[in-house]
Amino acid sequence: TTLGQARPVVGSHLRVGEGLLPTSAPPPQLLHVAIVCAGHNSSRDLNTLVKSVLFYRKNPLHFHLVTDAVARNILEMLFHTWMVPAVGVSFYDLEELKPQVSWIPNKHYSGLYGLMKLVLPGALPPDLARVIVLDTDVTFASDIAELWALFAHFSDKQVIGLVENQSDWYLGNLWRNHRPWPALGRGFNTGVILLRLGRLRQAGWGQMWTLTATRELLTLPATSLADQDIFNAVIKEHPGLVQPLPCVWNVQLSDHTLAERCYSEASDLKVIHWNSPKKLRVKNKHVEYFRNLYLTFLEYDGNLLRRELFGCPSPPPPGTEQLQRALAQLDEEDACFEFRQQQLTVHRVHISFLPHEPLPPRPHDVTLVAQLSMDRLQMLEALCRHWPGPMSLALYLTDAEAQQFLRFVEASAVLSARQDVAYHVVYREGPLYPVNQLRNVALAQALTPYVFLSDIDFLPAYSLYDYLRWGGGTRRTPGKYVVARETSGPHLVLCPLLLRRYHEWPRGHAPTDYARWREAQTPYRVQWAADYEPYVVVPRDCPRYDPRFVGFGWNKVAHIVELDAQEYELLVLPEAFTIHLPHAPSLDISRFRSSPAYRDCLQALKDEFHQDLSRHYGDAALKYLTALQQPPGPA
Amino acid sequence: TTLGQARPVVGSHLRVGEGLLPTSAPPPQLLHVAIVCAGHNSSRDLNTLVKSVLFYRKNPLHFHLVTDAVARNILEMLFHTWMVPAVGVSFYDLEELKPQVSWIPNKHYSGLYGLMKLVLPGALPPDLARVIVLDTDVTFASDIAELWALFAHFSDKQVIGLVENQSDWYLGNLWRNHRPWPALGRGFNTGVILLRLGRLRQAGWGQMWTLTATRELLTLPATSLADQDIFNAVIKEHPGLVQPLPCVWNVQLSDHTLAERCYSEASDLKVIHWNSPKKLRVKNKHVEYFRNLYLTFLEYDGNLLRRELFGCPSPPPPGTEQLQRALAQLDEEDACFEFRQQQLTVHRVHISFLPHEPLPPRPHDVTLVAQLSMDRLQMLEALCRHWPGPMSLALYLTDAEAQQFLRFVEASAVLSARQDVAYHVVYREGPLYPVNQLRNVALAQALTPYVFLSDIDFLPAYSLYDYLRWGGGTRRTPGKYVVARETSGPHLVLCPLLLRRYHEWPRGHAPTDYARWREAQTPYRVQWAADYEPYVVVPRDCPRYDPRFVGFGWNKVAHIVELDAQEYELLVLPEAFTIHLPHAPSLDISRFRSSPAYRDCLQALKDEFHQDLSRHYGDAALKYLTALQQPPGPA
């Protein structure tokens, strides 16, 4: 019997024709995986772990995620927008389960979350008989079905499958007076666990571990390795419960690991476990190999995992059928095919990619909303200096770029210091920049009553945040009009000025009337006109941007039309302005400038927008079409 | 016997402790792979194929590449700089082998190259007994050792392993008068072949296929599917030669494929074959699945495949030992650790990433040399308009960005039309922009006697190319001084002017003396001064850039010092100038501006540069150090 070596067995009796059809197999089994996940950073780890599992899997999977509110928020959005076929997700509230373990004193870096694995038999659905439990810091290098298959080797009494601990910790000889929890030999590591839930429940697991833990805690001050100490103490007492698993299923890269004894002769590592608090920076002579494996999935384009499984009929993820129908109806010969395809693309979204701790809500607070891609990253520091308030930024990145972004923020003292800037990663897919989809993601995540809808190459005046937020006591505050009017009556829009842009695109800012603005002491009302695209402050519940406008052109103009159609009042504030920074034209703009087809498509999109506008607003919308057909008047 | 399904076999007798050590296996066998590859596009395909093979492999591999001069040039550099452990490469000259097959009339899109597979038994080393032969348009989804293992199932007489053809082509009923070459049933596809070379040679393979082909060509006008027709005709005559392989080892995605009969019930596809001339655009109801698999490797970061194999002692690739020693000597606590690590990084280089057909060499011709990353792609069209001559450009990209770049060029009429622009992809690795390494790659690939060393955000004057190339007959040509002086006596440098830059960084251009330049009618000589960094035209064999300068700062200055130290004469040409385009600061510059540590490291690098200079040039180099220590004089 060779462990961890799998070679295909092929009969030499094959004849022509037989080769075409493989032996048919029953549809692959649904496998269940449970993971405890809390906070922003663990959510990123979980994303990487899930990518590695999905890459190799050939079975439908169901993830049971025990999460805090932060992780749930992030992961619900992630899985919802990921739309991976044959993947189900359930969430369980970590806060509800906490009291079951919070009485246990614990010194491990994973905190209470590790201990949560003890209560899974009670927390997961009662009809769930088997589950693979994973730490967020493991990476798969093989098909998880191979791990699941090890359940078949459990004897009737065995209920927990574990890999031996690959360090001498539990031998208790690491230093003088080192007193670890009791364990069988080297003990077991709980980064990867196979649980027979049904049998555990029958065996009274909850009582079993509670008793053991209580007894040990009479003489030991706390758990050192969280749940792992308790699992080992229970197993020491009931060795018949455990089915040891081959070491390759949990290759442990802690600091003084003995893992080399496992892998030195194995060519086939199945699961890598980064069980050192140093994670990727752990010192280990083969760490480069493991790191590459990890980086593979860290940077892997998760969109590519949206592939269907063969021989695995499963209901499509919610929304996909409708989407596929819409995509199928597109005409590939249509010159605007690329635009329409881009509009229909559902982007994977990872909200709050970095730790984010918004301040308690303040009345009249304003969040700056903007979007960017990699080539504008260097704007972030200046933006942080100019806008001391909350921001909600959508970043359009590949999985690999998201990692570069992470390093960029870590290296910047200015950015690291800010807890009130939320970064939402929207993963790239398709050839055109989905500017309005990005804006909508950032807008939806703003938490303050007001939002300042900006663009990444604009720097707000230093005073703008305080000015908009109604003064802060010391300043003259025409901004009060904003707030006063908002609560009752019509909506309202501010128009911070764009000095530089005016010269480039006068029609886009003509109604602001700069001559008047320069002299104004109080806010004044202006009328909408064709192609007007001021930067505005609006209540958070304002209309969303129209996602049909992708790439360059008319994306903001359409939004202002929508605001006007909904009778938002357009007010120019005398002290508000924002500064345009020059930059090289983006790829999408270059394309627009050089391609007549691009301009034709934009015209087609505008026409469709106006048709929809008429459908929604009736005759009132006629003015927008009429205005567009007239040449611009004197500004 | 189940084909294509591999589950681990695990004994249930495992006890604690046994799990730690897997059964030890003999060191993995060296596997041989032969591929025919010609031209720029096939070289890119081969890169993707190799990435898919390396991703899953656990054995040492040797690639036998039958190439034309273009592919050899590209692939030698690629493998040399890739430095993948346990991978060997041998090249075989396609031109030498061509006469053996060029007599065969052939209508297939793969041209003569497909036929080349017939002559492999004679072309590969006589002691090589087995080889896997692959088309460049296949993608692996599994470990190639599993394919190699099928050799074990060959009977004594079987010499060729093949998968059945997954179309009705050879049944001869596709259209009226469709007369395919003879085949057994549906025949076999030759995208994936297992060859027992020793036995083929013994069996007189060369004569065997030549006779069959000659005979068939008496009644058939040409091969339709190149080598595949001939392999099938031989097999029809000698059915005992073939070992049919399971269909999953060559899932064929041609237009009317029957492949679904293979994969509809298999969860385990091993090799995908894009055997339609439409490649990824083939219509097939599951093509999305296959495309994702292909894109996975197309965009996969090849650097991650530089990992060592476990249980596989193999000599490290040339140069790695020295490199690893140097890396090991670096001090992680050194503030400049990142800089030094970046300098030592060997970047994977894919020269001539796109088809490139340089004009025949002309005397005094000048190649524009520059480097860029993704955020400057939109400069390329303008650059092409301004510089009608040859260019050699190094692009610093990830594997995924290289594909975006490809689509960008395809979408641009201006760029697609140019055959004299060579694009060399240098794959990203590390946090700092290796500006001088990039310049050296582009410089090394210039084919003309002179090079104009430029930067991507500078547009040459429209006339500059002709002016530098000695006038083209119609123009006043002070440039002739350049050429006249170059052949004998000291080297020589031109200093095209940078109008805009002068104001930003006057010290960098002071010696050019703009007042004099504006009036000058003939070239004039200037003296080197501290921090001088003009843009220059020099003979191609000029000194290389110093790769220690990474990121921003002093990278060009050091090169000019080196030119001066080697007694290049500095001449300013009256009509030459180039225009700086404004752009957002790059990430590296932002970092430089905000980080004192960055500036300190740059100073350390400068100091080391001067020490090396003294070592090379002795007392003569003292002036550079002295100049640096003095405050700048009046410009």
TrEMBL record, chains A, B:
Please list the reactions this protein catalyses: 3-O-[beta-D-GlcA-(1->3)-beta-D-Xyl-(1->4)-Rib-ol-P-Rib-ol-P-3-beta-D-GalNAc-(1->3)-beta-D-GlcNAc-(1->4)-(O-6-P-alpha-D-Man)]-Thr-[protein] + UDP-alpha-D-xylose = 3-O-[alpha-D-Xyl-(1->3)-beta-D-GlcA-(1->4)-beta-D-Xyl-(1->4)-Rib-ol-P-Rib-ol-P-3-beta-D-GalNAc-(1->3)-beta-D-GlcNAc-(1->4)-(O-6-P-alpha-D-Man)]-Thr-[protein] + UDP + H(+); 3-O-{(1->[3)-alpha-D-Xyl-(1->3)-beta-D-GlcA-(1->](n)-4)-beta-D-Xyl-(1->4)-Rib-ol-P-Rib-ol-P-3-beta-D-GalNAc-(1->3)-beta-D-GlcNAc-(1->4)-O-6-P-alpha-D-Man}-L-Thr-[protein] + UDP-alpha-D-glucuronate = 3-O-{beta-D-GlcA-(1->[3)-alpha-D-Xyl-(1->3)-beta-D-GlcA-(1->](n)-4)-beta-D-Xyl-(1->4)-Rib-ol-P-Rib-ol-P-3-beta-D-GalNAc-(1->3)-beta-D-GlcNAc-(1->4)-O-6-P-alpha-D-Man}-L-Thr-[protein] + UDP + H(+); 3-O-{beta-D-GlcA-(1->[3)-alpha-D-Xyl-(1->3)-beta-D-GlcA-(1->](n)-4)-beta-D-Xyl-(1->4)-Rib-ol-P-Rib-ol-P-3-beta-D-GalNAc-(1->3)-beta-D-GlcNAc-(1->4)-O-6-P-alpha-D-Man}-L-Thr-[protein] + UDP-alpha-D-xylose = 3-O-{(1->[3)-alpha-D-Xyl-(1->3)-beta-D-GlcA-(1->](n+1)-4)-beta-D-Xyl-(1->4)-Rib-ol-P-Rib-ol-P-3-beta-D-GalNAc-(1->3)-beta-D-GlcNAc-(1->4)-O-6-P-alpha-D-Man}-L-Thr-[protein] + UDP + H(+)
Q: Where in the cell is it found?
A: Golgi apparatus membrane
**SUPFAM superfamilies reported in the protein's UniProt record:** Nucleotide-diphospho-sugar transferases
Q: Organism's domain of life?
A: Eukaryota
Residues folding into a coiled coil are none
Return one Gene Ontology term, BP aspect. protein O-linked glycosylation via mannose
Cofactor(s) of this protein: Mn(2+)
Cellular component terms (Gene Ontology): Golgi membrane
InterPro entries given in the database record: Glyco_trans_8, Nucleotide-diphossugar_trans, Xyl/GlcA_transferase
| Its membrane topology | Single-pass type II membrane protein
Q: Would the keyword Manganese turn up in this protein's UniProt record?
A: yes
Supply the alphabetized keyword list.
Glycoprotein, Glycosyltransferase, Golgi apparatus, Manganese, Membrane, Metal-binding, Multifunctional enzyme, Signal-anchor, Transferase, Transmembrane, Transmembrane helix
Pathway per the UniProt entry: Protein modification; protein glycosylation
Key word Transferase present: yes
Q: What is a GO molecular function of this protein?
A: metal ion binding
What is the annotated role of this protein in its UniProt record?
Answer: Bifunctional glycosyltransferase with both alpha-1,3-xylosyltransferase and beta-1,3-glucuronyltransferase activities involved in the maturation of alpha-dystroglycan (DAG1) by glycosylation leading to DAG1 binding to laminin G-like domain-containing extracellular proteins with high affinity and in a phosphorylated-O-mannosyl trisaccharide dependent manner. Elongates the glucuronyl-beta-1,4-xylose-beta disaccharide primer structure by adding repeating units [-3-Xylose-alpha-1,3-GlcA-beta-1-] to produce a heteropolysaccharide. Supports the maturation of DAG1 more effectively than LARGE1.
Similarity field: In the C-terminal section; belongs to the glycosyltransferase 49 family. In the N-terminal section; belongs to the glycosyltransferase 8 family.
This chain belongs to the protein called LARGE xylosyl- and glucuronyltransferase 2
